[in-house]
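sorry for the late reply, my laptop died twice this morning and i had to redo everyting from scratch. anyway the thing you sent over, i finally got around to it. pasting the sequence first so we're on the same page, its 98 residues, then the predicted structure underneath. double check i copied it right bc i was rushing
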Amino acid sequence: MNDKLHGYVEKLKQENGDWVTDVKDALGEVTVTVPGEAIVDVCRFLRDQQGFDLLADLCGGDRGPEEEPRFEVNYHLFSTTHHDRLRLKVLLPEDDPT
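ok and here's the structure:
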């Protein structure tokens, strides 16, 4: 995992250990899975404390009826100050995809 991006993940965990449920590192990108109820607080922390000031992309996906949770929402954050990218993922069940 990129050391700098790993540092952001550690800061998230230090701020609130419940915010990080999974971390994936692939092709130089880091994806942090966070609970849906925490996404606003996580984004606010990353914006205000870590400089991730641009929501570059927001997309959702249907992982298929055989998957649970079925849906995912990806937030691609960018820091115009540090030039770092971080992806946040929220998994949502079919019966309450909000």
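The longest strand covers residues 54-62.
thats about all i looked at so far, will dig more tmrw
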